[in-house]
Amino acid sequence: MDFPALTVDDEPRPWTGRYDGDGEAHLRWWQAVTPAADGTPALHKPALHTPAETAASAQRPAVILGFCSDEGVRRNKGRTGAAAAPAAIRSALGPLAFHSERPVADAGDVVVRDGGLEAGQARAGLAVAALLDAGRLTLLLGGGHETAYASYLGVAGSRPVRDGQRLGVLNLDAHFDLRDEAAPTSGTPFLQMARAEAAAGRELKYAVVGISEPNNTRALFSTADELGVKYLLDEDCTAGAAEAFVADFLSGIDVLYLTIDLDVLPAAVAPGVSAPAAYGVPLPVISAVCRQVVASGKLLHADVAELNPAFDIDNRTARVAARLVSILLG
């Protein structure tokens, strides 16, 4: 399958990591990930994935795309720094052992400059839609949670949704991000989605795992209720409750867009975010949800948002993000 032509602002850079050898038994992410526009294997990667092998595994090739933006966080009066996150996540992911049977490519970055958030979201959305239509599993590395609307533009513009498959949006997050503001921010993307879906004659199917009651106003809960949003509070996020909640949501959709705001995790696990969580959802619960959606076969697109490397103690949050990416693309 040919790789679609994409317009990105920064081309993919070489990945780095520990070198243990060339064989499959030694493979790490930095060796396995190829530049998206390059049909040749990475420097040390064995030719493991012929078309027949890919078809047999029923796994779509995956593409990673960065969205370098913290303009939405700035507009939302948060602490900026998330624009540097895609590079930090790649750096944390590169040394990890590669156990996937799925080919993975890196498409580079879309970069928001000079406050041009909306234009950047549109560019990223076009790239995601083109990749989805080419049969790829896409993963967008944010960026603030304004990344979510860029993801939505790509998913909503892709062939599966255009052809009528029922889309569900699952957000792992302490916040609803349903704010009604004069301009888009990191706190508005899901209200923007709801309005876009309504304009398209559809209803947004939106669910959130990890909502922090003290960090969402009554107005936000009211908006969520008006839109029919399903949610699970952080204090109720046991492994069993989260699994049942997600299973119920998956049963009513055909394809899933999963978005992970890293501030859903406790601050001790994810200190490097725009708004650290005082309570948070345990990492084993979040990783189990990721495995659950992968196993469902319905995952169309995913993103990881709100890593702020400037505040990341010992790269803890970047390492957690990398671990979750390895699950989603496994």
State which percent range the strand residues make up: 15-25%
Summed over residues and divided by their number, the pLDDT gives a mean of 92
Structural class: alpha/beta
- Rg over CA atoms, rounded to whole Å, is 18 Å
Short summary:
The protein has 330 residues and is α/β, with parallel strands linked by helices. The chain has helices at residues 29-32, 51-57, 71-75, 85-93, 117-133, 147-156, 159-162, 189-199, 218-226, 239-250, 283-296, 316-328; strands at 34-35, 62-68, 104-111, 137-142, 167-172, 205-211, 230-233, 255-261, 299-305.
Structural account:
This protein is α/β, with parallel strands linked by helices and 330 residues long. It is built from 12 helices and 9 strands. Helix 4 crosses helix 12, helix 10 runs parallel beside helix 11 and helix 11 runs parallel beside helix 12. The chain is globular. The two termini are 20 Å apart. About 6% of the residues have low confidence.
List strands and helices in order, with pairings.
Blueprint: H1 29-32, E1 34-35, H2 51-57, E2 62-68, H3 71-75, H4 85-93, E3 104-111, H5 117-133, E4 137-142, H6 147-156, H7 159-162, E5 167-172, H8 189-199, E6 205-211, H9 218-226, E7 230-233, H10 239-250, E8 255-261, H11 283-296, E9 299-305, H12 316-328
Helix pairs in contact: 4-12, 5-6, 6-8, 10-11, 11-12
Keywords:
single chain, 330 residues, alpha/beta, nine-stranded parallel β-sheet, 9 strands, 35% helix, globular
